[in-house]
Amino acid sequence: MLGSFAVLRKQSLLGDAISHAALPGIAIAFLITGAKDSNILLLGALVSGLIGTFWIRGIITKTHLKSDTALGLILSLFFGFGMLLLTFIQKQPNANQAGLDKYLFGQAATLVESDVWLMAIVTGICLIVLLLFWKEFKLLLFDADYTKTLGFNTKFIDILITTFIVLAIVLGLQTVGVVLMSAMLLAPAAAARQWTNSLGVMVILAAIFGAFSGVLGTAVSASQNNLSTGPVIVLIAAVFVFISFVFSPSRGLLFREIRFRKNRRDLKLQKTLSFMFNIAKTHEDISHPHTIKILNNFQGYTRKTLQKLVDKNYVTITDNMWSLTPEGFKSAANLYNQHLDQNE
Amino acid sequence: MSNAQIEIQLIASLVAIACAIPGTFLVLRKMAMISDAISHSILPGIVIGFFITQDLNSPLLILLAAVTGIITVVLVEYIQKTGLVKEDTAIGLVFPVLFSIGVILIAKNANDVHLDIDAVLLGELAFAPFDRLMIAGVDIGPKSLWVIGCILLITITLLIAFFKELKVSTFDVGLASALGFSPAIIHYGLMTVSSITTVGAFDAVGAILVVALMIAPAATAYLLTTDLKKMILLSIVFGVFSAISGYWVAHWLDASIAGSITSMLGLLFLVVYLFAPNKGLIAVMYRDKQQRTEVSLLTFLLHLGNHQDESERHVNHLNEHINWQKVRSKTVLDLALKNNMITIDNHIVSLTKKGKEFTSQAISYIITNEDSKIEHMKDDFFLFRG
User: Fold this and answer.
1) Could B82 and A245 be called an inter-chain contact, meaning their C-beta atoms sit closer than 8 Å?
2) ipTM greater than 0.95, yes or no?
3) Domain enclosing residue B309, as ranges
């Protein structure tokens, strides 16, 4: 759900960056407390994720480095630092350290009941906040300047959205792992975007897509041996995206191709018609017959287009000769006028 | 220093140089995240290569991985061209999918071979010297040293041969195509080099470090210079410096070398980010503050110009009227005094001749908004800073 906002705000890769940036937080939280309490670790991840996010912001606004550089930079630096800490922890004499790296790749199977409850609660809070601030979020998303002039505290709303995105990512980390988190954030939203232009519908669709790929992915990975859950979920989400890209009625590639072909055919038809019109114009009688051979010189003419014109009752054919009907003459004469009208 | 230590540092430095060169161009072309995508998505290529050869060291692996890297770039561009989603979303969609395919392939088929995700993602530099290249039974050094050395040689040759083309197509795509080099070929060439470097390097240092070594030195150098040649040189220097110092930090902490090199890079970037002379955070903030004071001064002078009445020109009244804090108004007053713009006589502020001239110029600039008028005013403003 929150992914929708990330996609629309052109911060898609933020998810990737945050999920990597969370690592040092987990490590530091562990170093400080020395216990493997998942809540505290998550808190650490949240804090370092937020630091990462705001540092990225700082780099983008204060220097001339571009957003992609800032993202890549923070991502790799935080992650590297996290690795350093993790290996450092491994050398420490502390029996609890095993399993910290599970956070890296995620194991949905290792989740215990309390984790699930935590997720459910956080999802609930996300939903409530989303509903409460729906109008503000929407405004900020599409027209930040306007929001500011209306007197909303844009900074606060911005931080709120970012915090929730980070929170969602950090929670998701446990399930699908660092690498695949960004796909979980993006894929449902990108798929949903193809079906609708309305933010509300998009958010709901994204949630549905996400839930579906989660359920299906878990089912598939449970039915087979040796299949880790995360990657399967991501692949299924990718299938959703692919289907949406190809088959979505208004933006999909398939329908776009069909529309494109149809337009081209129409254009050819009109070209042939206007060519005929120019020939017919020179004769007194517009229905004066001509041989089909003349048309062969004309690019865009095919037997099919001629047949189409006959079907439309614009042209009649009698043994290798064609002649324009009055109806065809009229519509051909109007062809260019129509375009002129549109241009004006 | 033992022999192995020298070799590790040598490998790390070579990797740093090999990454810094394509990294510079990636950063300049705003494609830094592509390197992240490549480093993840080469996984299926390596896995498939491994199934074919059953040998982790075969060159086919590197070739296939590079091909997967290029496939990633092509896919990202294709998705982007359809116009359905933005570029960053396209990147974010493509690489997790390829990575998932890789993970599943490993899980399904290669459960008991030595090929696990951790090793691929994180790499371990410390073991690099043990994997030695033997030719006719003679030990001629660690294998990854040779691999990365070859890649570096190719990269440098290509860089020197196509420096001009790269430069033009990076900064002005239109000009490049007008001059007759195909930007597409250069683009894919660069991508190929990046993929190969990533593949060659990650064997030794892991995917994340590759990304860090590509982006961080280039970004740091970019904060310090705007000259392309200097930028490449600087990023090489930064890369090598953090490679060697990172090694010693890791040695001291007994932790992952890749992680500590990255942390050194991060530290380096942080320092430059804060203290870079022109583009650093502190410099930018200082400049912002100065500009704010200058604008305040202008406001103040305009205010004075508008009010002839003595009561309106009292120092305390000004404080209230323009709504400034005490400190701020004192700064502005001092600045104006120092530049002989005003005189203060018994708490009544009045404009001097110079101040009046300046104010009328400022007004005419504000009204006409012509750049020619502001040119010599910029010099005047420069006076304040001294």
Assistant:
1) yes
2) no
3) 282-385
